[in-house]
Protein 1
Amino acid sequence: MRVVSGIVVDANSATMPGVTVFLKDLKSKNIRSFTSDAQGNYRFTQVNMAQDHELWAEKDGKKSVVKTVSSWDTRKEFVQELKLK
C-alpha cells in the first residue's frame, strides 16, 4: 500500500483550503475524495500500489491537471502539488 498526499495551490501558488481532491482507481473506477485542510494539504492512505490511479482537484468550476499515479512507480509515499487553473 502507498500514501498519496500533497498540497493544492492556486495559479499564484497560494495554498487553497476547502478544495475537493479526487483519487480514481482506473481498474475498479472507484473514486475517493478528500477536502484539503486549512493549509491546503490532502492525504489518501491505503492506496493500492498494484493499480493505476488518476489524481485531480476541483473547486468552483476550476480544475487541476489530471495526474497519473502509476503502478510502475514504486514510491510508498507519492507527493504531488495540484494547481487549480
Protein 2
Amino acid sequence: MLKGISQVISPELLAVLARMGHGDEIILADAHFPGHSIGPQVLRADGLMVAQLLDGILPLFELDSYATPLSMMAVSAGDTLDPEVEADYRAVIRKHVAGDPKLERIDRFAFYERAKGAFAIVITGEVRKYGNLLLKKGVTPTA
C-alpha cells in the first residue's frame, strides 16, 4: 500500500499509468465492452464503477491540453442516453481538473477503432449504457 494513492488503483494499473506517455490513451470501459477481443492490454476492475476509478486516476494523471482529452460513445440511432452517466464523470473531472476539459462523443464503431490503438483498456463493473470513457494523457507540469 502506498500513501496518497487511492485504494481503487491496483499495482497493475499504477504501472500502466506510469508507463503511458503524452498522447497515449486509456479506456475506462463498462462491463459490456469487448476489450479482450480488441487487442491492447486489458486490466480488470470488475468491482468498481468508472467514476470511482476516474476519481482515483485523475490525481495521478494529467489530461492532454493540446487535444481533446476525453471521449465517450455517441448514442446509436434509436437508442436512449442516460445523461447521468456523463454528469457523474464530469463531477469527478471538475473535482480534479481546472477548467472544463473538452469531451467529445464519437460513433460506437469509431470508439472501438480508437480503443484498438489505446495503451490499455480497464474493464470495470459499470453497467450503464454508453459508460465508456477514453482519457488522453498529457504532460505532467514540472512546477
Protein 3
Amino acid sequence: MRAVVQRVSRARVEVEGEIVGRIGRGLVVFLGVGKEDAPADSDYMAGKISGLRIFEDKEGLMNLSVQDIGAEILSISQFTLYGDCRKGRRPGFSDAAPPGLAEELYERFNENLCREGITVAKGRFQAEMRIVADNDGPVTMLLDSKKLF
C-alpha cells in the first residue's frame, strides 16, 4: 500500500462539480492499494498516518500528529500511485489492486482512522475527482507499507 500524505490548512474534493468531502486543518491522504496488499497493510497505514508527527509544536518542531491537534483527514483512493513508468511513456498499472480489493482495503483504512477518533472526509471511489488543497509548509510524505518489512 502506498500513500502520499500532504499537510494542509484546508482541502476539498469535488465530483462532477459537487463537493463530496472537505476538511479544515489536517492531512490529505492519497492512498494506493497494490494487488499484493492485505488487511495488515491497511491497518499499518492507518496507524502510521494517524500518529505521524508532522505538525509543529510551540517550538516549531514537527512533534505533533493529526490526533494530537484534533485535525482532520481527507482520504482519496488513487490507483495511479501504482503506475509503473519505467518502460515507454505510458504508465502501466498491473501492480494496482483490482477494484474490489482496492475498495475493501481503502474503506478499512478509513474505518481504522475513524476508530482512532479522527474525522475523515472521503472522495468517491473510482470517480473522476478534482482535489483542491492549500498545502501547509509544504510538507509531503511518501509511505509504502512494503518497504518497512
Protein 4
Amino acid sequence: MTYKQYAVHPDLKNWIRYFWSYDVCTSETQVLHVRSFADRYPRLIFQDIRSFSPIKGADGGIKPICYLSGVDTQPTDAFWDSRFSHFGISFQPHALHTFFGINAADLTDQMPDIGLLDKTEIAALLTEAHDHLERVALLSHYFYKKIAQAKGDTIINNLFQGDWADRLDNEKSLAAIASHYHISERQLQRKFKQNVGVSARKFARIAKFEKSLQAISSVQYGNLTQVAYDLDYTDQSHFIKDFKFFSGLSPYDFVRQANLGSESASFIYPDPMV
C-alpha cells in the first residue's frame, strides 16, 4: 500500500489540512474492511473506479465517485477489494460550512455526493486527471475560488487559527472564549455547531478520543489507567466508555487488531469473513 500526503498552498491552510492519496495495485484478490471511527476532520474522497474497485458501504451500496464526509461522531464500516486508488482532502473542522455555505450539522455523520452540494464537474475532472499531483492542482484551484466567494464566520475562523479549539471541554473555557469575542456563550455554541456540525463539548470529546487512539497504540492494555490519567479522564471506566462510544470497540479490542494501514481515524483490516 502506498500512502502519501501532499502540501497545501498557504492561502488554503486555514481550511485544508492536507491532500492525501492511497493506492494499491496487486494481482492478489482480497476484500478489505475499513472501519472509520469518530473523526473531527471532514473529508473529501475521490475514488478512481476506471481500473480499480469501488468503495462499498456496509449495506453493499457503491459510494459516489467523489463525496464528502462531515464530522463523524460514530463508527462506520466500508469494504473494497485490494486493488484501489483513492485521493482525498482532510479539511479543518469548520471548512465545509465555509466552502459550501451549508449548516455543517446537516453533514454530521453523512457522506453526500459532492454534486448534491455544488453543481460542478469536479468529479469528471478528477477522473480525467493524469495523476494525484494534477488532482492537488485541480482541487486547490477549485477551493481557492470558493474562498474568494465565501462569507466565513470571523469568530469561528479565528477560533481554529489560534489555540482556542483545544480549550472547549468545560463551561469555564467556553465562557472565557465567549467573553473574549464579546458574545454570549449561547451564541458561541450556535455558531460552533453551525460551522462545525457538533457542539463544542462533543467536539472536545472527539478530540480527546483521537488522542487516545495514538496513545494506546504504543502501550500495553494494563497501562490504560495511565492513558486515561494523561488525557484527563475522570477514571479508566470513563475512558473506556468514551472509547467504545466513538469506535465501537473496547481499547483492548482495538489494540489487538493488527491493521494494514490508516488515514486519519480510519483503519484498514483484512476481512476475516472472506
